[in-house]
Specification:
- Helix content is 64%, strand content 9%.
- By secondary structure, it is mainly alpha-helical.
- It has a domain at 18-91.
């Protein structure tokens, strides 16, 4: 399994190096008035990719923080419930008697051989 992972990693590196070599031409970026930047295309693409990853992670952080707070709150509530259950166990239900069972379950109708005739 590890050999397959290393082969895939090697293939990715080869593709990235090939991409960098094929996109080595210089491009000009125009920013504010009278500001230009000349850099290789592969460098510009790398910077934009990294900036996208950073922005995505920064957008993801509030969700992670909110989920961790919620997990902590739920964990504390579960511990509190477990502590309450250990202190005062629930009362055992009373045993059912024949009279209670008979009153809650009416007897089934007697079967006749006529079947509704």
């Amino acid at each position: 399994m590890q050999a397959i992972v290393w082969i895939i990693r090697f293939a990715i590196v080869v593709v990235l190096v090939w991409f960098a070599v094929k996109n080595a031409q210089v491009v000009t970026l125009h920013g504010l008035p009278d500001q230009t930047l000349q850099a290789p295309l592969v460098f510009v693409l790398l910077v934009v990719f990294v900036a996208g990853v950073v922005i995505g992670l920064l957008a993801w952080v509030p969700t992670v923080i909110r989920q961790r707070r919620e997990i902590g709150r739920l964990r504390r509530a579960a511990e509190k419930q477990a502590a309450l259950a250990a202190i005062a166990p629930a009362p055992a239900p009373a045993p059912a008697t024949a009279a209670v069972v008979a009153s809650t379950h009416p007897p089934a109708p007697a079967a006749t051989g006529n079947h509704g005739v």
